[in-house]
Structures are given as C-alpha cells and as structure tokens.
Design goal:
By secondary structure, the chain is an all-alpha fold. It is built from 9 helices and no strands.
C-alpha cells in the first residue's frame, strides 16, 4: 500500500470518528436523555476548553518523547474508551467530564494526523504542498459518510452513534501501526515555555490582517458550535 493510500485511510477514519457524533449528539442528549440546553452547551463547550490546552502539550510530547504515530494511536485508544463510557452515560455531569476527556485526547490527533501526513509525504520524496490536499479531502469525505451513516441508520437519537464512533477510533488505533514512523526532535538547547507552547506566535497579531482574521475566526467558531449543538 502506498504512503498516500495509508494517509488517506487515516484521514478518512480521523474525521469519521468525529462526524459520527458531533452533529447529532445534541439531539440525542436533548430528546433521549432530556438534558437541558445549558447542559448540552456545556458538553459541546468542552471541546473548546480542550482546544486551548491540549494541542500544544501533546505537540511537546510528540516532539521530545513519543513518536507522533505512536502517540496518535494512544490518544485514539483513550478516546475510544471515553466514547464507550459516554454511550452508557445518562448523567449530565458525568457526560460533561467524559466528553471533556474525549476532547482532550481527540482534538490533538487532528494536528498529529497532519504532522504524520507531512512527515510521510516528505520521507517518500513527495511535495507535501501538492500532495497533502488530495489526502486531506478524504477527511471531509469521512465526516460526510459518518453523518450519512448515522442519519440513514436512524441513530440520531440513539447512543449507537457513540458506539460507531468508538469502533472507528479502535480501527484507527490498529491502523496507526502501519503509519510512517515519525522522528523525535533531538533537542539540545532548552527552549522557553513561551516558545514550547507556541505563545510567541501572538506577535503576529501586530499585523492588522491577522488580528481581523483571528476575531472573525472566533465569531465563526462560536456560531458553528451553537449550530452543531442544536
């Protein structure tokens, strides 16, 4: 199997996991579990909280201690466990914490999948700028097919959507063993915590275009979360 084929399968499953529950979990929690709007909002908001914390921390680990492809499989195995627990949960507080944990281990895998893709393409002597888009589009296909699977199967108001997501995550764990073996950075000079966490990138906001882009990206993100939850 070529490197591009393996990366396409990885990207497809990556977003199939997310698409299996992201659009329909709110309906399940409101109509089946009878959660309040605030409780549903809290569960969906957990992804935002995880996004603030985890990508940088997981990135540091992948750079220094654990190969990205191995860490990728570990995160998805933990995410599968969380999804299986969520499928059996009817308490809003427990659902929040379980889905928060799931977000903490799932959100970083998006950037890890990109790291693995770029590393694998470059290792094979392929131009990542030209070849990555044809890999990434399979993520969109996976997300759409996951939504179709849930909707056409009539699982929008059922916990089966979470079982399907967990199953796809477990497939991805197995598939991670055939992904490119990523290198670990040999760090000799200690970097500041600000640099490790990527906080020095905030200097870009001195540019008017970047500041405007960031503001509108936040507004779009907020509207998107409301749309997904309800």
């Amino acid at each position: 199997m070529t490197i591009k084929s393996r990366l396409k399968i990885m990207t497809f499953l990556q977003f199939f996991v997310w698409g299996s529950w992201l659009i329909t979990l709110g309906s399940y929690m409101i109509n089946t579990l009878h959660f309040s709007g605030a409780q549903v909002g809290a569960v969906y908001g957990s992804s935002g909280l995880a996004s603030l914390i985890m990508p940088s921390l997981i990135g540091i680990i992948a750079d220094r201690w654990v190969k990205a492809n191995r860490l990728y499989g570990i995160c998805h195995s933990l995410g599968a466990i969380a999804l299986l627990i969520a499928a059996q949960t009817s308490d809003p507080t427990l659902m929040f914490w379980v889905m928060f944990f799931n977000a903490m281990v799932y959100i970083p895998t998006i950037s890890l999948s990109y790291t693995i893709s770029y590393f694998g393409l470059e290792k094979e002597g392929l131009d990542s700028t030209k070849n990555f888009p044809s890999v990434r589009v399979y993520g969109t296909i996976g997300f759409i097919l996951a939504m179709w699977t849930i909707s056409l199967g009539g699982f929008e108001l059922s916990n089966i959507q979470l079982y399907i997501a967990a199953g796809a995550a477990l497939l991805l764990v197995l598939f991670s063993f055939v992904l490119p073996d990523c290198a670990i950075e040999n760090v000799k000079k200690e970097k500041s915590l600000v640099h490790l966490l990527g906080l020095d990138a905030f200097v870009l906001f001195k540019q008017k275009k970047m500041a405007i882009f960031f503001i509108f990206a936040m507004l779009i993100g907020a509207a998107l979360q409301i749309n997904l939850a309800f």
